[in-house]
Design brief:
Layout (H helix, E strand, L loop, with lengths): L15 H9 L3 H5 L13 E5 L3 E7 L8 E6 L2 E16 L4 E16 L11 E5 L2 E7 L14
Antiparallel strand pairs: 1-2, 2-7, 3-4, 4-5, 6-7
Length: 151
């Protein structure tokens, strides 16, 4: 029998965030959001698309209503959160049994977006068929060339 001394720690996995940054050339904080701000381990899947004029975020969040969402932009972070509280009550008259079940679901995702690159005032959100779509228009780049004279 051979004894192997261990320190009780699991071997460290490669740095997943850096790997994603390199693989997709997109900061993992944009893709994954802020893990400290996720609730209940529930984090909806998100598609992020981009063209010359805008970003499009698609959040898979079935079973919610548009009133359940809270979307804000604060300190270069687009924050999408939702909460749903449901109460189901069932009566069985023959046995005079009453059962009540409570359910509470919530999540929060944040995305790092440079405010000077997007038009925050024109962000548009729609919720349809279980998908929350956010259109985030990009700001026009200032292409003017200013000549500076040397005095």
């Amino acid at each position: 029998m051979t004894l192997i001394k261990t320190n009780g720690r699991k071997p460290q996995a490669p740095d997943f965030n850096n790997w994603l940054d390199q693989l997709f050339d997109v900061p993992s904080s944009f893709v994954l959001g802020n893990p400290e701000k996720r609730f209940n381990g529930n984090s909806p899947a998100v598609n992020i698309k981009e063209n010359d004029k805008e970003f499009l975020l698609e959040v898979a969040a079935p079973g919610l209503k548009k009133e359940d969402f809270n979307i804000s932009f604060e300190k270069n972070h687009l924050i999408i959160s939702a909460s749903k509280k449901s109460e189901t009550e069932e009566k069985v008259e023959s046995h005079k049994v009453k059962r009540t079940e409570f359910q509470y679901e919530s999540f929060e995702r944040s995305f790092l977006i440079e405010e000077d690159k997007v038009d925050v005032d024109q962000i548009n959100a729609q919720y349809q068929d279980g998908i929350l779509k956010l259109v985030i228009p990009k700001k026009e780049e200032d292409k003017r060339v200013k000549q500076i004279t040397v005095s």
